[in-house]
């Protein structure tokens, strides 16, 4: 398949992160390479699937914990958690060997960090959770192409919370600088790296306007 080919290409040249398409981020190939190493080339993609299940199980913990701030009833929280966990898209993206399998944990970690950050009482705690959100977004930039637009969504959320006078403008500015600027820079750098790796390579994902 497409991603199996990309993984094999990365095994031959580990320094080339984009063996076939700029929208296919390297995280899925790193999982495949880890599967090769852990199983001695016997079941690399099956092992990658197992690792994906474990990572997405951790993601579901962050999803559940994020709902504590706006769903007070434990039963409603559990129901919301079960609904998200057993959605067909969740189940398929958890086990399939594709980039979708690597996006769940970074996304959940980013949301968890931002929710905690904006609800924190002290500035120190708020900035600490902003670092967590920054880490989630940075990890997401290596996982899925759509993460390149999430810093804009995060900025909108922070501005709205500030407009509702939930946080001061100083905290809003500090959180934006920590949680959003670094992932934006990394996303632009990854795109530049993709352009360099894919010079002369036929594109797989194109759109005829």
Order of helices and strands: HHHHHHHHH
User: Counting H and I runs of at least 4 residues, what is the number of helices?
Assistant: 9
Shape estimate = globular
Task: Tell me the fraction of residues in β-strands, as a range.
Answer: under 5%
Oligomer classification: single chain
Uncertain runs: none
Distance between the termini: 27 Å
Query: Would you tell me the structural class of the helices and strands?
Result: mainly alpha
Mean pLDDT: 86
How many β-strand stretches?
A: 0
Question: Sheet with the most strands?
Answer: none
Helix content: 55-70%
| Radius of gyration, CA atoms, in whole angstroms | 19 Å
Chain-wise SSE layout:
Blueprint: H1 2-12, H2 27-39, H3 44-66, H4 74-85, H5 88-95, H6 104-119, H7 123-141, H8 150-163, H9 169-197
Helix pairs in contact: 1-2, 2-3, 3-6, 6-7, 7-9, 8-9
């Amino acid at each position: 398949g497409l991603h199996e080919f990309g993984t094999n290409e990365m095994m031959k040249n580990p320094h080339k992160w984009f063996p076939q398409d700029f929208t296919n981020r390297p995280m899925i190939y790193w999982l495949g390479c880890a599967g090769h190493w852990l199983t001695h080339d016997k079941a690399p993609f099956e092992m990658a699937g197992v690792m994906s299940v474990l990572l997405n199980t951790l993601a579901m913990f962050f999803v559940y914990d994020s709902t504590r701030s706006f769903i007070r009833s434990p039963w409603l929280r559990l129901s919301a958690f079960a609904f998200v966990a057993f959605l067909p898209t969740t189940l398929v993206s958890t086990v399939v060997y594709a980039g979708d399998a690597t996006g769940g944990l970074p996304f959940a970690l980013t949301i968890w960090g931002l929710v905690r950050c904006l609800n924190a009482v002290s500035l120190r705690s708020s900035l600490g959770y902003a670092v967590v959100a920054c880490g989630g977004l940075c990890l997401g930039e290596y996982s899925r192409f759509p993460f390149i637009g999430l810093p804009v969504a995060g900025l909108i959320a922070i501005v709205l919370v500030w407009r509702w006078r939930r946080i001061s403008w100083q905290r809003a500015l500090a959180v934006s600088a920590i949680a959003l600027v670094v992932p934006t820079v990394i996303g632009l750098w990854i795109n530049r790296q993709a352009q360099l790796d894919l010079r002369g390579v036929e594109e797989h994902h194109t759109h005829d306007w």
